[in-house]
């Protein structure tokens, strides 16, 4: 029995001792842990406090920032490293053209290079490079350079390079001043870059009278009047170097004026109309591969009209655009035609031309269009008989039909057929396949 | 020519003649929902012009002459922003608008600048379709955004027209209170819709889905703004069934063919939901718009 009791007590004792020593150690440990926790707690608390104050500060700041943001207004432009770079856009355009006639001359008119029929076969048209941005709160700048193939070489043509005032300048509301080189406000199409046209080529009046488009050096002031109905007026002063002028000695020999108005027809349709003048003197306008020279006064008067019908109110689905322009030119001066031998023949005559076109959007991707253009040359004096200015009583006419497919706002493929009757009993049948693709920033198109 | 000059000069002079200036604030709202909200806050203290209707896709509007004349007189532009109006608003701003409504000014209020936009693209490339760098612009179909914008608009109006500030504040307060009650009621109705699947033609409904707890099971356009192709629709058809999708949504201005085709193939009903309120001066309220949308969705959700 004893043998059993002793070890048992010993065990209990030992157990007791170990547990108490354990307990003692444990209390010691807990104390130090508690102390540690306390110090930790204190340090965290102080940290939390600083964080809290920081958060509060930030919140306050955020609130005031939000407030000032609301007051200041907002801008859609994000600030990144290159955000201040100008918008850049490139327009590619290429054609495959097939003509039945070897030459094409608009009888009765001195037509310069850009107004001529395009190159036959495969070839790219002008590649347009555009850069534009606000310079500051007062000025906007834009430049468009076209790389073109001319006489067997690639050349850079500066189509546009202008600065324009922004409302921040403090001009009266609706007033804009534009200076530099630009497609000025004459007629409807002149201001529009050719890549945005509804047809692969410009209508006859633009080819004969404006060498495709008038983009002289100059200044133009315009104003949208504070009327219920849209009414815009403008006037410009130009160097007089670009067709229909040329070789200006004074450097300010042309001026223009225009008035435009427009409105809605019901909810889904709109119209616009305009009248414009382009008047000036030329000291030597070259045309017909430099064979024909005109010196004198040239005045153009144009009216334009455009109606857009949208059955659903959405330009994306179905749309019909009717458009027409009438030009009248009064010229008084001397014509020289090196080919016919006419030298400085006095000329005083009035000619005119117009086009009318309809474009129907049948679905989001497809459009069809038809255009008719006609020119009425002036009567020529005896000295110019047989020259390029003599149409032999024929009025040049072009019939065009086209269909195009739009991949998106940025891509278009077009097939166009033209029948050009430029002289008596002589027609040129033309087939043009064209693509127009743009990358990068792409300015909104005119209305 | 002299006759023409005379006519031009006469028109010029007559047009420059002083015209009566109305003292009321002119608000130019790009979309009808902002016109309706402006009406709620500004009441008859402002003249509100709404540029587009609920059946028009604000992506594709032409900068027409009448809009230039209207923006010319605007004191405040109230639009969606986030590049929704990028095809026409910049041209209008450039052509006729005053300095006070240019970007960054007090008179330039773009709603999307004040809410968190969804679906911000990670990559910008035009091959991805008509994507907006700022994210999905159709923010008005989350009613919580309407409440936010009511407050923002009130603040703007109060600064632009200090004389009537207390009027705007009072109207905004009562609108926000009523809207809060409506929101609570709508939120209760959402329980039937939460977690249900929806196919959309275009992502016009993302904010509605985000608010209501519906989930998008498919988009009919493979890439935003690019018309659906037959090949892609076939793939969508494999994904969509009456089990996972209660409806195919489209607006009145979306092409109806793709969703009708998918309805025939999959049996999922294709429905048109109103995208916005009627265009002022036609009567229509934002509350009615959301009621209408919810009722239509509920009707479709209870079907077996």
Describe the structure.
The complex is a heterodimer of chains A (about 450) and B (about 300). By secondary structure, chain A is an alpha+beta fold. Chain A is elongated, with a radius of gyration of 38 Å. In chain A, a hairpin with a 4-residue loop joins β13 (about 340-360) and β14. The N and C termini of chain A lie far apart (about 120 Å). Chain A has a 16-stranded antiparallel β-barrel. Helices cover about 15% and strands about 50% of the residues of chain A. Chain A has helices at about 1-70, 205-210; strands at about 85-100, 120-125, 125-135, 140-150, 155-165, 175-180, 215-225, 230-240, 255-265, 270-285, 290-310, 320-335, 340-360, 365-375, 395-410, 410-425, 425-440. Chain B has about 300 residues and is α/β, with parallel strands linked by helices. Chain B has helices at about 1-15, 30-40, 65-70, 90-95, 145-160, 165-190, 205-210, 230-240, 255-265, 285-300, and strands at about 25-30, 45-50, 75-80, 110, 195-200, 215-220, 245-250, 270. Chain B has a 4-stranded parallel beta sheet with strand order 2-1-3-4, with helices on one face. In chain B, strands 6-5-7-8 form a 4-stranded parallel beta sheet, sandwiched between helices. In chain B, α2 packs across α5, α6 runs parallel beside α10 and α8 packs across α9 (about 255-265). Chains A and B meet through α1, β8, β9, β10 and β11 of A and α1, α3, α4, β4 and α5 of B.
Q: What's the total helix number of chain A? A: 2
Q: Mean pLDDT of chain B, rounded to whole units?
A: 90
Shape of chain A: elongated
Give start-end ranges of low-pLDDT stretches of chain B. Answer: 13-21
Distance between the termini of chain A: 118 Å
Shape of chain B: globular
Q: Any idea what the radius of gyration of chain A is?
A: 38 Å
Report the portion of residues of chain A in β strands: over 45%
| Strand/helix succession of chain B | HEHEHEHEHHEHEHEHEH
SSE series of chain A? HEEEEEEHEEEEEEEEEEE
Tally of DSSP β-strands of chain A: 17
């Amino acid at each position: 029995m004893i043998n059993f009791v002793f070890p048992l007590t010993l065990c209990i004792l030992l157990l007791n001792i170990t547990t108490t020593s354990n307990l003692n150690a444990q209390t010691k440990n807990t104390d130090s842990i508690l102390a540690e926790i306390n110090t930790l707690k204190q340090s965290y608390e102080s940290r939390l406090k600083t964080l809290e104050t920081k958060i509060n500060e930030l919140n306050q700041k955020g609130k005031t920032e939000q407030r000032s943001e609301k007051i200041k207004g907002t801008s859609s432009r994000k600030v990144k490293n290159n955000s201040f770079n100008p918008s850049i856009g490139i327009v590619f355009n290429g054609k495959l053209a097939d003509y039945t006639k070897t030459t094409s001359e608009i009888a009765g008119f001195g037509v310069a290079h850009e107004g001529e029929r395009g190159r036959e076969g495969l070839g790219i048209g002008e590649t347009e490079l555009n850069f534009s941005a606000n310079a500051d709160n007062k000025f906007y700048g834009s430049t468009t350079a076209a790389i073109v193939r001319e006489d067997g070489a690639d050349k850079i043509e500066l189509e546009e390079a202008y600065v324009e005032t922004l409302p921040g300048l403090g001009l009266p509301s609706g007033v804009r001043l534009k200076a530099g080189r630009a497609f000025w406000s004459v007629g409807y199409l002149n201001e529009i870059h050719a890549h945005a046209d509804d047809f692969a080529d410009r209508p006859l009046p633009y080819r004969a009278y404006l060498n495709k488009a008038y983009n002289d050096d100059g200044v133009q002031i315009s104003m949208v009047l504070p009327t219920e109905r849209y009414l815009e007026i403008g006037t410009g002063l130009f160097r007089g170097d670009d067709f229909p002028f040329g070789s200006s000695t004074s450097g300010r020999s042309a001026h223009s004026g225009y008035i435009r108005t427009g409105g809605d027809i019901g909810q889904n349709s709109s119209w616009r109309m305009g009248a414009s003048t382009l008047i000036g003197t030329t000291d030597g306008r070259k045309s017909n591969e430099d064979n024909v020279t005109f010196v004198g006064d040239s005045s153009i008067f144009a009216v334009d009209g455009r109606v857009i019908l949208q059955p659903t109110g959405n330009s994306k689905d179905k749309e019909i655009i009717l458009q027409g322009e009438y030009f009248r030119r009064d010229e008084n001066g001397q014509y020289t035609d090196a080919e016919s031998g006419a030298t400085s023949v006095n000329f005083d005559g009035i000619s005119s031309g117009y086009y009318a076109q309809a474009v129907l959007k049948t679905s989001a991707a497809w459009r069809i269009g038809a255009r008719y253009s006609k020119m009425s040359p002036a009567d020529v004096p005896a000295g110019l008989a047989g020259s390029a200015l003599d149409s032999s009583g024929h009025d040049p006419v072009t019939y065009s039909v086209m269909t195009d497919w739009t991949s998106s706002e940025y891509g278009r493929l077009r097939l166009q057929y033209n029948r050009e009757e430029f002289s008596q009993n002589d027609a040129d049948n033309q087939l043009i396949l064209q693509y127009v693709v743009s990358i990068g920033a792409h300015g909104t198109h005119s209305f | 020519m002299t006759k023409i000059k005379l006519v031009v000069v006469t028109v010029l002079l007559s047009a420059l003649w002083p015209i009566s200036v109305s003292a009321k604030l002119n608000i130019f709202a790009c979309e009808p929902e902002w016109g309706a909200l402006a009406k709620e806050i500004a009441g008859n203290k402002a003249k509100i012009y709404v540029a587009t209707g609920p059946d028009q896709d604000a992506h594709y509007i032409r900068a027409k002459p009448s809009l230039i004349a209207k923006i010319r007189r605007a004191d405040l532009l109230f639009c969606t922003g986030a590049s929704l109006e990028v095809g026409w608003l910049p041209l209008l701003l450039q052509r006729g608008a005053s300095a006070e409504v240019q970007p960054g000014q007090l008179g330039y209020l773009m709603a999307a600048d004040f809410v968190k936009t969804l679906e911000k693209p990670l990559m910008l490339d035009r091959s991805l379709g008509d994507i907006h760098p700022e994210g999905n612009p159709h923010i008005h179909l989350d009613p919580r955004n309407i409440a936010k914008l009511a407050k923002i608009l009130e603040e703007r109006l109060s600064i632009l027209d200090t004389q009537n500030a207390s009027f705007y504040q009072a109207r905004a307060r009562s609108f926000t209170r009523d809207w809060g009650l409506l929101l609570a009621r709508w939120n209760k109705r959402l329980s039937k819709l939460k977690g249900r699947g929806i196919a959309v033609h275009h992502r016009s409904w993302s904010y509605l889905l985000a608010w209501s707890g519906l989930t998008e099971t498919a988009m009919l356009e493979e890439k935003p703004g690019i018309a659906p192709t037959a090949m892609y629709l076939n793939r969508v058809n494999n994904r969509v069934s009456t089990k996972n999708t209660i409806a195919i949504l489209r607006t009145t201005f979306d092409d109806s063919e793709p969703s009708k085709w998918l309805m025939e193939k999959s049996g999922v009903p294709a429905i048109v939901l109103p995208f916005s309120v009627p265009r002022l001066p036609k009567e229509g309220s934002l509350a009615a718009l959301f009621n209408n949308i919810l009722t239509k969705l509920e009707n479709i959700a209870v079907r077996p």
